[in-house]
Amino acid sequence: MIMHHKEIVNMADKIQDIFGGAVFYQFLVSGWILCTSVYRIANVS
Q: Which of 5, 13, 21, 38 has its C-alpha lying 20 to 30 A from 32's C-alpha?
């Protein structure tokens, strides 16, 4: 059972290593787009 848990943790770490950077980049770009949109709406009013 402990070996099974270790394999699951290793698999999760591999997935995080593969997709972690992409998710962070997407979050950063989405935040930038949201802030830019709110700024433009505030300037129009």
A: 13
User: How far apart, in Å, are the Cα atoms of 33 and each of 11, 29, 38?
Assistant: 33, 6, 9
* Rounded Cα–Cα distance for residues 45 and 34 (Å): 17
* pLDDT attached to residue 2: 84
Widest pairwise Cα distance in the chain: 61
- Dump pLDDT digits (tens) for 1-45: 889 999 999 999 999 988 888 889 999 999 999 999 999 999 886
Q: Which tokens go with 20?
A: 């972690």
